[in-house]
Every structure is written in structure tokens, then in C-alpha cells.
Amino acid sequence: MTALEKALTEFKQVERSACSTSVLHSLDPRAKTLVVLIYIIAVLSESPDALAGILLFWIFPIIACAMGGIEYGKVMRKSLYTLPFIAFIGIFNPIFQREPMLTVGGVVITKGWVEFVSILLRGLLSVQMALVLIMTTGFYRVCRGLGKMGVPGVFTTQLLLVYRYIYLLVEEAIDMDRARKSRSYGRKGYGFKMWGTFVGQLLMRTVNRAQRIHRAMVSRGFTGELPSIVKMKWRGRDTLFVIIACGLIAACRFVNISAFFS
User: Fold this and answer.
1) How many CB atoms lie within 10 A of CB 104?
2) Which DSSP letter does residue 149 get?
3) What is the distance between the alpha carbons of residues 145 and 240, in angstroms, rounded to a whole number?
4) Would you call 107 helix, strand, or coil by DSSP?
5) Sign for the pseudo-dihedral over CA of 195, 198, 200, 206
6) Are 99 and 136 spatial neighbours (Cβ–Cβ below 8 Å)?
7) Per-residue model confidence as pLDDT tens digits over 135-189
8) How distant, in Å, are the alpha carbons of 21, 69, 121, 223, 242 from that of 56?
9) Within 10 A of 69 (CB to CB), how many other CB atoms are there?
10) DSSP 8-state class, residue 184
11) What is the pLDDT of residues 180-216, one digit of tens each?
12) Which runs of consecutive H residues, i.e. helices, occur in 104-232?
């Protein structure tokens, strides 16, 4: 199985996991989306040098995975794919922030390195909670939940179409890769000159396919917003879930954990 096929398989596994039955799966998508948004805001608003407080937020994706019947190791591994992009955000902090902050075993750790680690942790935790949300709800239901919460339909429709376009992009790339291998007579890898042609052809093929899909949607009455068939009903346990989760998030955000160890 090639890397592209593995990526497509993982995309499909994420969607299939949303069809399971668990305590977290049974909650209203709006309740879960609201809690995840509050969690991400709380994590990102934490002080960059408050590593103890940021580490405390790690219990939330672990508990969420347990409630959703999901193996936390899988969520952790999937979140690591975003690590290079997160690292790029804080890569210059160790260079410009050189004030000594900690001493561990005689080694002086500067403020820049502490902030860099903080950015990595906050990014990974935010991605993990977003993954848990999608794996226990499904991207379609998340977007419908956002629509019910007042997000403009144009925005949610664009999210759904972009999500679908990712599948088209990967599927077309797999077809092109198979065609290349069938004509390469055992040669492996792409030459430098082939990359421009490959990427250009991939873009043209996916755009053409997306246009055909759009014409098919318009011929079936598409007017800019996808009709919703998802029925949502807010129940008492959804309210209880939001209250308890937001209370725990607020406690982790505003309680000074380091004071208990000083």
C-alpha cells in the first residue's frame, strides 16, 4: 500500500469511527462542538511559559477518547502529522527569546525553548480534540451543527465541499501514481522534471472532476446550500455535558497549578 492509499484509508477510518455507539457519540453535535471550541480557546489563551497548566489540559483528549471508545494512541499518531506545521509557527522563538528561564541538571533552558515546547503542546492538544470531535461525530454532522449554531450556510457548505475535494485530490493522485508505475518498467520515484508535470496534471484533473460534480449537483437543484437530513435534538444530558466540561476547562485554565508544588 502506497503512502497515498494509506492516507485515503485513514480518512475513511476517521469517518467510519463516527458510526460507532458510545456515550460521546450519542451527544448532540452542537454540544460537542461548543465544548471543543471552548477547550481550544482555553488552551491557546494559556500563557506560553505555563507548561504545567498546558500539560494539565492533556487529560481532556484522554478522557474524551475513553468516552468515545477510541484508542488514544491512534489519535496521538494522527495528530503528529501536523507537528511540522505547528513547529514552523514557533521555530524562531529559541532564536530571539534567549533569556534564561529554567535550569535542569545544570543545563540552562531559555524562554524561547519553553515557548517553543508550549506552542507544540498547545497545537497538538487542539488538533487531538478536533480529531476526537470528527471521529465521534463525523465531519458532515459537525458542519450541520455549526449551521444550527448560527454559522452562515455559505461557510459550512464550503467546509463540506473542501473536505470532499480532499478525497478527490487523493483519489486522482492514486490513479496517476498507478498509471506512472505501470509505464515506468520498474523504475522507482519521480525525477525532478516530472514533479512539475505531475502536480500540474493533478490540479487539472481534480478541477475538471470537481466541475463535473458541480454540474451534476446543479442539475439536481443545488442552489448554494446543501439540504440537511440530519435531525438534532438537544437533551438534558447535552446541557449537563456542556456545564461539566466547561467547568473543568475553566478550572484548568484559571487555577494556578504550579502553586500547589511550590
Assistant:
1) 7
2) T
3) 18
4) strand
5) negative
6) no
7) 998 888 888 888 888 888 888 888 888 888 887 778 878 887 777 777 766 666 6
8) 28, 22, 11, 46, 19
9) 15
10) T
11) 777 766 666 666 667 777 778 778 887 888 788 888 8
12) 111-137, 139-148, 153-183, 192-219
